[in-house]
Design goal:
Blueprint lengths: L1 H21 L6 E8 L3 E7 L4 H13 L5 E7 L3 E8 L25 E4 L12 E4 L17 E7 L1 H8 L14 E7 L9
Length: about 190
């Protein structure tokens, strides 16, 4: 019995170490703050696993593209999508599309952020979505190439859930606009509560 307990403890220690060693190192991640009309969301972006998607997203962040955009597609128990339309529901101009990195090993699990795209595999530009549940059918190889996850929510999942539970009208557009007031790299991002 003592041997079994020792083995269990050893296996737990090894698995904990392995899990920690797979976590991204600080220089491999970027933190981004989103002040929305519903509350504050903080994202951790994974530069190592999704360098193209992260660089693309950050170029839109740094240019101010996301400021004043809305979550224009909100589907309860699925995802919330934003980054492409102003409050007037006019689509914003974008940079050229990027290569799809859905084969990077990151999964469309609850709380992850991924690049939205059209039916064309390499068509992602500025739009992104945050998964409000595990959406395994969006992963690489499940039904097609998949949708590239490039980060996760580390603060504010309750805000994401509130957005997901918003009343929507035609084409899943929230009845009351949900605005991204300010999106910045975290060093520059004052939290709404400050």
């Amino acid at each position: 019995m003592r041997l079994m307990m020792t083995l269990c403890a050893l296996l737990f220690s090894i698995s904990s170490f392995a899990a920690d060693s797979k976590a991204a190192a600080p220089d491999e991640v970027v933190l981004v703050g989103m002040n929305t009309s519903v509350g504050y969301i903080e994202l951790e972006l994974n530069k190592t696993k999704a360098p193209i998607s992260v660089a693309n997203f950050l170029s839109y962040v740094n240019s101010g593209h996301y400021n004043g955009t809305v979550f224009h597609r909100v589907i309860k128990d699925f995802m919330v999508q934003g980054g492409g339309f102003g409050a007037d529901m006019r689509q914003k101009a974008t940079q050229p599309p990027i290569k799809n990195e859905a084969d990077n090993g990151l999964k469309n699990n609850r709380g992850t952020i991924a690049m939205a795209r059209t039916a064309s595999v390499d068509s992602a530009t500025s739009q992104f979505f945050i998964n409000v549940k595990d959406n395994t059918f969006l992963n690489n190889g499940v039904r097609d190439f998949g949708y590239a996850v490039f980060g996760k929510v580390v603060t504010g999942m309750a805000v994401v859930d509130a957005i997901a539970n918003s009343q929507t009208g035609a084409r899943d557009v929230p009845v009351q606009p949900i605005v991204l007031h300010d999106v910045r790299i975290i060093d520059d991002a004052p939290k709404a509560s400050e």
